[in-house]
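PROTEIN DESIGN WORKSHEET
SECTION A - STRUCTURE
LENGTH: 192
TOKENS:
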């Protein structure tokens, strides 16, 4: 028997503040581009295969791919917070799991299971020519907060002869970048 489970999740979060904009608040300004791949639910897929009888086999394969891009381009705008100005770019949580289980039993059997989780996540804060003021504090932040991935492959092999293989892989690629050009002006008592 053969069981396959494949899933691809593409997530894009973008906040754009163009040129000539004016954002003004008496208290705090909080501009927050946030991607949360969990949001109370874990991304999970599973494939189960079993085979019993003379010369049987079981083959299970589970592939989960997650791609995320979080971007905040800020142009030549004025952003004024009376007390605090925050511009945050965050991938707050990536929580993914792929499981593959294969079970075979006979005089001669073959049992294979493969599970793969692939994560590719980019966070990019790009500030060009902005005028940012927070009297007490300015917070500029680009980060990945939590990445939890799990790939699990199990085989159960009950035979006099044959083979049993289990292969689990978790591949992670993250890129976090903050670019603030030389034309940007930041006025505050505390820059974080």
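SECTION B - SEQUENCE
RESIDUE ASSIGNMENT:
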């Amino acid at each position: 028997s053969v069981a396959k489970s494949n899933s691809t999740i593409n997530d894009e979060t973008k906040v754009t503040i163009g040129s000539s904009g004016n954002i003004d608040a008496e208290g705090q300004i909080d501009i927050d581009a946030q991607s949360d791949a969990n949001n109370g639910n874990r991304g999970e897929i599973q494939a189960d295969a079993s085979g019993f009888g003379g010369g049987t086999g079981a083959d299970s394969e589970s592939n989960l791919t997650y791609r995320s891009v979080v971007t905040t381009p800020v142009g030549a705008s004025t952003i004024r917070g009376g007390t605090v100005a925050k511009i945050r770019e965050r991938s707050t949580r990536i929580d993914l799991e792929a499981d593959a289980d294969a079970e075979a039993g006979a005089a001669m059997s073959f049992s294979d299971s493969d599970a793969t989780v692939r994560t590719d996540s980019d966070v990019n804060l790009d500030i060009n020519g902005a005028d940012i003021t927070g009297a007490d504090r300015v917070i500029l932040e680009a980060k990945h907060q939590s990445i939890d991935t799990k790939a699990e492959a199990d085989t159960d092999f009950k035979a006099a002869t044959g083979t049993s293989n289990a292969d689990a892989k978790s591949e992670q690629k993250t890129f976090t970048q903050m670019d603030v050009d030389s034309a940007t002006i930041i006025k505050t008592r505390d820059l974080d």
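SECTION C - NOTES
The radius of gyration is 24 Å.
The chain has a mean pLDDT of 88.
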